[in-house]
Amino acid sequence: MIRIKEFTYKNSYCLFEKFNIWNDIVHDHIIPQKQFEKCKKIHDNKYYTLIDGVITVTRKDLLCFYGCKYPKNDFKITFGPYIYINKPFKLDCDIFHFRCYNTSNAVIFDDVHFHVKKLSKIPKESTNFLKEDFSIPINNKRYDVHVYVIDSLSYYHALRALPKTRKFLKEKFNGVEMEYLNVIGGNSRPNAYGFLLNKQNMDVDDFFSYEKTKKNDFGDLDSCEVALDNQTFIQEYYRKMGYVTLSAEDYDSGGVFSYLNCV
């Protein structure tokens, strides 16, 4: 510990060396798994088409219905009525349940479908987070922004386990890898505050006790009890600038900012 303190005191930088992800010492902790067999696709939709948000039944000998699912909050959804599809329908939802019956009232096809409903009009909002003399060009092209978050995944883990995914994102989408990007806390919520809000919700302590503790952005308040209203949420910034936004988390106990019982 004394040697480390002396080194840290004399140097204001750290040198990160390249690491062989399949070094022999790695095998003491990781056993490479065999390649997964390719799954056989069995989903075969011969019952409806969905083109430009319009659903049309292709089997006239069946009775088919759809029901929309509308998001209410991070915990609940609202169920719309089931509608008999006797003609093409324009959907007003992103997620719908589709089911077909035969003449014996037996379910022949059952599916939940997701698509992105196009908005005819995008409301304009105030962009008070931009400088007063900055204006967004009317005909400026808005590039799509996709953010995929895989929880509990380190940089080296991604190198070992997701080579095809990394290649696809880098070659097809010009993806940029941020090497050695460090975590803020031990779970998703504190990391999301830094990643999406540019906020630190945990105090920063000097490991070697040379510097004073840096207070978090919420001071003595519990960040879980502070609403995101008027906070620096990057997704809201994009939305207010005219982008269509979509946030889809796959955890049934709430979103990253609302778990657990946060406001």
Automatic annotation (TrEMBL):
UniProt-listed InterPro entries: DUF229
Gene Ontology cellular component annotations, sorted alphabetically: extracellular space
Highest taxon in the source lineage: Eukaryota
Protein name: DUF1919 domain-containing protein
